[in-house]
Amino acid sequence: MNGIRNYMPHTPVKSIAKAHFDQDRFAQIVAARRIDEQLSLRDLGNMIGVSAATLSRIEAGRHPSIDAFGQICEWLRVNPAEFFYTDEDAEVTEA
User: Fold this and answer.
1) Which residues have a Cβ under 8 Å from the Cβ of 33 and sit 6 or more positions away?
2) Residue 19: exposure state from Cβ atoms within 10 A (0-12, 13-18, ≥19)
3) Are 17 and 87 in contact (CB under 8 A)?
4) Which of 65, 61, 77, 78 is nearest to 22 (CA)?
5) How far is the C-alpha of 88 from the C-alpha of 86, rounded, in Å?
6) Please, what is the end-to-end C-alpha distance for the chain in angstroms?
7) What are the helix (H) ranges across 1-95?
8) Between vectors from CA 23 to CA 56 and to CA 14, what angle results, nearest 5°?
9) CA-based nearest residue to 55, from 63, 47, 45
């Protein structure tokens, strides 16, 4: 334990921003883009390597696996960070 103590900061951490995943926004964007491109769940799944069942669950509001999330973001051509926000971000948008 003494060795670890050397690596611990001596000043207390005031707050740590906690990131939240905006699942509703993600689901809406995935569904809108898929429909806009006139793709079935199966067609999209075959294109990006994610099962139609997984895509259906995501569009229904379930959290994607990290692999599916990455593949979908690549298909959407968006930075995955676009779907995350912190409590501080939420305070700014409410003001």
Assistant:
1) 75, 76
2) exposed
3) yes
4) 61
5) 5
6) 45
7) 2-5, 23-36, 41-48, 52-59, 66-76, 87-94
8) 155
9) 45
Q: Are 22 and 83 in contact (CB under 8 A)?
A: yes
- Residues, the chain, total? 95
| pTM metric for this prediction | 0.74
- What's the rounded Cα separation, in Å, for the pair 95 and 11? 31
The answer to whether residues 68 and 58 touch, using CB atoms and an 8 Å cutoff, is: yes
Average pLDDT for 77-93: 81
Per the model's pLDDT, the better-predicted residue between 17 and 7 turns out to be: 17
Report how far residue 58's alpha carbon sits from residue 88's, in angstroms, rounded to the nearest whole number. Answer: 26
Residue at token pair 């926004």:
25
Token pair for 2: 């003494």
pLDDT band at 1 (very low <50, low <70, confident <90, very high): very low
Domains in the chain (CATH in brackets) are 19-94 (1.10.260.40)
Which one-letter amino acid corresponds to residue 24? D
